[in-house]
Design brief:
- The structure is a single chain.
- By secondary structure, the protein is mostly beta strands.
- The protein folds into 2 domains: about 150 residues, no CATH class; about 150 residues, Chondroitinase Ac, Chain A, domain 3, CATH 2.60.220.
- Helix content is about 10%, strand content about 40%.
- It contains 5 helices and 22 strands.
- Strands 11-13-14-17-21-20 form a 6-stranded mixed sheet, with no helix packed on it. Strands 1, 3, 6, 9 and 10 form a 5-stranded mixed sheet that branches.
- The longest helix has 10 residues.
Length: about 325
Amino acid sequence: MKKIISLTLVALMLTASAVMAMADVDPSFTASEATATTGLSIDTTGEDGTLEGALLTPGKEYDFPLLLDGQPITDDTLKDVNIRISAKKGSSTMSSFSLVKVSGRHVLRAIVKTAWPVNPTDVEYEIRLIDRKDQPGVTLDTLTVRFETGYRAADDAIINSLSIGDEIVVDPEAPVFTKDQLNKISSVNNYRNVTFVGDIWRYTVNVTDLKGINMLYNYNGIPELLSKYQEHDFEFINFPAGPTFTINGKFEIDVADFADNFEGKFYVYRYLSGRLTQLNTTYDEENNTLTFNTNTLGRFVLSDRPMDASIIDNNTSSGGTQPTVPGGNPVTGAVA
C-alpha cells in the first residue's frame, strides 16, 4: 500500500533543548483529513492531531507521531519490521529527518537547517515499512510525506489594503514580502520610498523592482561582544536575512526606552563576519531617535561607549562579500 500525506503543522515548533527536555511528544497538530488506520500513518486522532501541508521554520525542530496500524511504534514493534526513510526532494534544507525514541515510542523528528530564504522549498520523504520476520526485506507499506521549509509571507489582505504613505508593519511570524507584494506596495506609493516598521525601528527605502525580501528581525545579543565588553550597555537589532536594497534607505531607531542608561551617548556599529564597523549616525535628543543610511540590513549594535572596530571573532570568516542563501538574501551571521 502506498499513501501520501502532506504535513500541516499548526503549533508544534520545538528547539533541540526543548524536545529533549519533554517527557512526552507535544500534541499540537490539527487534522485536515483522516489518515489510514492500517499500515504507516501520521497520528491524526485525539490530542495528537495531524499534519497536512506544513511550512516548517528554518532553525526549528519538530516531532511528528508516526503510527503502525494505528498504534505508536515501540521497540517491540521494530523487532518485526524496519522503518527506512529516503529523501526525495528538498533535503538540502534539512539537517535531519529521522525516527527517534521519545518516552518509549518512536516519532519522526524533523530538524530544519538555519537559513533565511525568501521562497519556501518543497520537501518530500518516503517512509517504507520493511518486513524482517516473515518476508525479510519485503516492503509492506509506503508513506510519502510532503511539506515545505521557509517563512510565511505577509498577509495579502493587509498588503492589498494599503494606501499611499501607509507604513508597513513587519510581523516576525510572517516576515517575507514577495515580488508581487513589493510590486503592489511600490505601485500604490507611485514608486517612491516606503516605510517598514518594527516595534522600535523604522526603515524608509525604495522597493521598486525587488524580487522579494525577508525582513525577519530580532534583538538577540552577540555573545562575542557581551563577553569581550562586559562593562558596556548594549542594544542589538538583527536582520538575519540581510535584505539588500538598490539604494540607501534611512534607518531610524527609537531609543527612548534605554536613552537614560546610555546617558545620551550612542556608538552604533555593524557586526559582520566577526568584524565591527562603526556607522555614521545622527542622534535626535528631543525625539529620542538614532538615524543612519544603509542599503543593507544586518546586525546592528548600539553601545554606550566606543569599541575597537576590528575582528572580534577570529573563528569567523572576515571576507568582504556576503554569501547568499536560497531566496537571494545575503547571510549576515545574525542569530535566527
